[in-house]
## 1
Amino acid sequence: MADYEVQYSKGTGDWSAKRAGSGRSAGRYDTQADAHDAARGYAERSGGGEVRDHRKDNNQIRNTDTVGKKDPYPPKG
């Protein structure tokens, strides 16, 4: 299982999908949606995990998506 981060890079002006704790990105993409889809695929192939989307302006976590495992905090309702 592996967790992935989707973050914006001001230096290169693109979005990256990288494994949490890694210094190098797994891929670079033009849109956040493309990076999220790629990170989701990486997480699925590694046996499941979390995909965390970060905001473009302040890099805070905007959204978390659980992939390939039971969600520890499912939405109510």
## 2
Amino acid sequence: MTASYETRIRRVRQYIFDNPAGDLSLDALAGVAAMSRFHWHRVFHGMTGETCAQAVRRIRAHRAACWLVQTNWPLETIAARAGYDNAQSFARTFKAQFAMTPAAFRKAGRPDPLDPDFITGDPAMYPVEIRPAEDPFRIAALPHTGPYIEIGRTFEQVSTVFAARGLWPQGRGMIGLYYDDPDSVPEADLRSHAGIIVPEDFAMPEALEEIRVPSQRYAVATYTGPYAGLKGCYDWFFGSWLPASGEEAAEAPCMELYMNSPQETAPQDLVTKIFMPLRPASVTAA
């Protein structure tokens, strides 16, 4: 029975992501879940910890934030695609969520290449540490194909499995693995995994994939702010910090460790650790 409810919640969250401008009323979402309006709201709230209305507001704001950074669409177009009545309503609601206007968010998430701080890098903005060898660990995950900035929809699916089955006490943190260079691979073909770190004795649900990450040396940059601004940190990390560091990147996926939850943390206070795999120190020195 739990699996049935889990499937319904996953279906509804996917529907919200795919149809932010559609009818996302409680009645409509209950229809997607194939449950009565009254019972559906109680089930969704009880299993996810948020109301349907809260989920809709959060996901709509996330889709809008992604489009602000990914596209050159006018604000009016983004407002309509994200399900807001008009640009004024969009600006008001977005600012309440992200503590800045859509225009300011777009500028912050897409740094000006002519900005000296973007070219030289500002160490105070993105602190970096070298970790000699992270221990191997295990992840419960689902694959995501497409723009990295839209991996949130897959994290929603993984989170639903954990919430529905009472597995969160065994979780050790949410993590994303990113296998391709977004500047050289078409967005539609980008490969990644959304997952949760779990202990060795964790019983892997059949709905999720097991991924094992071997011991690896990393440079770790700390980024604070909305996820839509992560690309600016990556550009600085690879374009400024790496060439000046004397290090060489290894042939392994980058990872993002999410230190707090967007459901409980203001977007400007979200903390993400970006793990860049490095070649062994002896190889680099040679």
